[in-house]
Amino acid sequence: xxxxxxxxxxxxxxxxxxxxxxxxxxxxxxxxxxxxxxxxxxxxxxxxxxxxxxxxxxxxxxxxxxxxxxxxxxxxxxxxxxxxxxxxxxxxxxxxxxxxxxxxxxxxxxxxxxxxxxxxxxxxxxxxxxxxxxxxxxxxxxxxxxxxxxxxxxxxxxxxxxxxxxxxxxxxxxxxxxxxxxxxxxxxxxxxxxxxxxxxxxxxxxxxxxxxxxxxxxxxxxxxxxxxxxxxxxxxxxxxxxxxxxxxxxxxxxxxxxxxxxxxxxxxxxxxxxxxxxxxxxxxxxxxxxxxxxxxxxxxxxxxxxxxxxxxxxxxxxxxxxxxxxxxxxxxxxxxxxxxxxxxxxxxxxxxxxxxxxxxxxxxxxxxxxxxxxxxxxxxxxxxxxxxxxxxxxxxxxxxxxxxxxxxxxxxxxxxxxxxxxxxxxxxxxxxxxxxxx
Length: 438
Ligand code: C2O
Ligand code: CU
Ligand code: CU
Known about the structure:
The chain is mostly beta strands. The protein has helices at 109-114, 384-387, 422-426; strands spanning 4-16, 25-30, 39-42, 46-53, 61-64, 85-90, 97-103, 118-124, 141-149, 171-174, 177-178, 181-184, 188-195, 202-208, 215-216, 218-223, 226-234, 237-239, 244-250, 258-263, 278-284, 313-320, 323-326, 338-340, 347-354, 361-365, 370-376, 393-396, 401-407, 413-419, 430-435.
């Protein structure tokens, strides 16, 4: 028989105290912690996860980055009410990567995710081991899940439920802790960044406290769909909601120093808050270690879709009459919300146009990994670390049009695509596509 791994996760309430002089916030998360428990799964090993809902709101679980069959993809209306559970089946057939699981329930994804329903799911491909990157979960391979929260004077979370545009948050959290510090050895580390915030994008850089103003260079080695073709040396990294970037930072020369992870500026139309320029601190201590890990010049041959020039779909992400829409359609418009019908096994080119004024939208397409081909009418061109790997989320700046190309291969079925600003998503900036068999 087949080897299927079974897990059980209970969504339940817990308390978290951020301010010593205010009460604790009541959150609800997977297994009562936030981020939820980290899954580490070998590529090709199937998993079944029973998500038991013992929280207050209905939920739907999406494993973001997975080639899931439609019934297990966290369809927004496939909700599990409090007191019920659902078993989700994951084939884990995609390339090794950092996935994340989070809530996707209709109309209150922002609330559920913000109150704790997000966690990391690492799909490990044994082929990666030969590369000798820094390894060992929790020792020198560490997920860093960014989020931004806002608290009320009594210490509870300021709810996103009544927001209609954004919730930026003025308290930056990493792995659920506000502005934490991490003790590291003078050696290389692999950090898996995920921006799990509701509406906040980051421009990250590392700075030695002893040399303020000088950015520490690092290598971007992976994005949403796993390893890039080759490491990209940078000194700053854009990351937007739901994007994942993995980096290798070498603290080898900074023994006895502190290195601060900073946020250079808020991307797009974000509000300005005083303390959002810093994220966390690394305290480099301990003795020089024998660090045999490395960043090889070639990482893998990325399975880019066969390139084609024809454009199959053009989608406008817009704001009309105070509502967020895609090509004039909202997700509530059930009869019209299937906006594309790619044939299974074919490659399609989609143009994503931001025609919503100064707003920004990180656009996520479920089921597929895409290549970012072109970026026009905005401030950036395609970044090397966007282009050298496959992605499932792409940031759309004000006025920009981004062209993406994907192989609609894994399965047939109806899947969602949407803005990953969770307020926009809940306010109907979401549609569906139907992959049909040829
Ligand atoms: Cu990360 Cu449709 O979501
Ligand atoms: Cu997804
Ligand atoms: Cu948006």
